[in-house]
Design a protein that fits this description.
3 helices, 2 domains, five-stranded antiparallel sheet, SH3 type barrels, alpha+beta, GMP Synthetase, Chain A, domain 3
Length: 155
């Protein structure tokens, strides 16, 4: 999904999800199998139910039809983040302090011996970025703007 469309879908869907006391974790738009899929990942304290997903799907679908943001036919899928919840925002890296994470960077980090993949305990968000401690006790600071993908690791 082009960044402009993703931002527009986020702006449209986020208030709808928030009004239902939930969080919009992520928006994905990609070709899968026979067509395009717009996937909204939602979460709430205590977990998301099938009824939550259905309700958000109906409300967001109506709003998307009116706004007509996406020029191609697509299937709207609303789901929970699952056990390997993606981490996208600063507050995600603060909220899941102490949890095991896996992070991939856009480019090798010279200050981390050229590594691009980090697996360890999330220690939080510092001034220089996300702080992760690997199983050997080594700490890495990963600048937010260098993170390509990050998610929780189910233990």
């Amino acid at each position: 999904m082009s960044p402009g469309v993703r931002e527009q879908v986020l702006q449209l869907a986020e208030p709808i999800v928030r009004d239902e006391a939930m969080e919009l974790v992520d928006v994905e738009y990609r070709r899968e199998g026979q067509g395009w899929v717009l996937r909204l990942i939602i979460d709430k304290e205590g977990g998301v139910t099938l009824d939550d997903c259905s309700r958000i799907s109906r409300e967001v679908s109506r709003a998307l039809d009116v706004a007509d943001l996406i020029p191609y036919a697509y299937h709207l899928v609303v789901s929970s983040p699952g056990l390997d919840r993606p981490l996208r925002r600063e507050q995600d890296f603060q909220r899941f302090h102490g949890r095991r994470v896996k992070i991939w960077t856009l480019a090798p980090l010279p200050e981390a011996e050229g590594r691009r993949t980090f697996d360890g305990t999330l220690l939080g968000l510092g001034a220089a970025g996300v702080v992760v401690e690997d199983p050997g006790g080594r700490r890495y600071q990963i600048p937010l703007e260098q993170i390509a993908k990050a998610h929780l690791v189910y233990e």
